[in-house]
Amino acid sequence: MTTYLESERLTLRPFTAADADLLIELDSDPAVMRYLTGGAATPPEEVRDRAIPSILAGYERWDHDLGLFAAYEKDGGAFVGWFCLRPLRGGPREEAELGYRLRQAAWGRGYATEVSQALLAKGFGDLGIRMVWAETMTVNRPSRNVMEKLGMTLVESLPTPDDMMAVEGSEHGGVRYEITKEQWELRQA
User: Where are the beta strands (DSSP E) in 7-78?
Assistant: First the structure.
């Protein structure tokens, strides 16, 4: 299997059609889905029929440079979740979303920060990315902490989408963080 990226402790690789069960299991954990669906699982048919084909099409769309990637521990090979660095569909290629979804067993171990730092370095250093953004719910403090550790700046508050109104903390809306290539380079100096 092709390696997309390595960090100190994790390896990222492209998903395949055979990986649907990994995503189904990840998205069936109520704690993992807390700030996404209020804890409701993603239906397995949605993962198989929509999510996986969309992920695979993204690799083709962005020449395998960007997308959503499966993350595994180097020591033992356990699947820990996924990370993404990808533009919006139809959006400018040089503006990419940073995202992550990790199994509970991987929480609190610094993986989100570690791999996100490596993704920023790859995006800004090799892939022509000029700005990276990330969004989460205002009340999702662990995810916001990662964004802040990366040097991302809070740029705006976001309204809660209609399909997330039942999610805990929805009354507080969401937040968008950004970091530009220039800001990232200053942090590296």
Answer: 10-14, 67-73
Given a cut of 90, whether residue 166 has pLDDT beyond it is no
> Nearest-5° angle of CA 26, CA 28, CA 31?
85
pLDDT digits (tens, 9 = 90+) for 121-164: 999 999 999 999 999 999 999 999 999 999 999 999 999 988 88
CB 74 within 8 Å of CB 17: no
Collapse the DSSP code of 186 into the 3-class scheme (helix H, G, I; strand E, B; otherwise coil) and give the result.
Answer: helix
Crossing angle, helix 181-188 and helix 111-126, to 10 degrees? 110
State which H helix or E strand residue 154 sits in: strand 153-158
| Close Cβ partners of 88 (under 8 Å, ≥ 6 residues apart) | 95, 97
Q: In whole angstroms, what separates CA 159 from the centre of its chain?
A: 20
CATH topology classification for 5-188: Aminopeptidase (3.40.630)
> How does residue 47 score in pLDDT terms, banded at 50, 70 and 90?
very high
* pLDDT, tens only, 109-130: 999 999 999 999 999 999 999 9
What are the residue ranges spanned by the domains of the chain?
A: 5-188
C-alpha distances in Å from residue 86, one per residue of 3, 39, 59, 73? 17, 25, 10, 22
Average pLDDT, the chain: 96
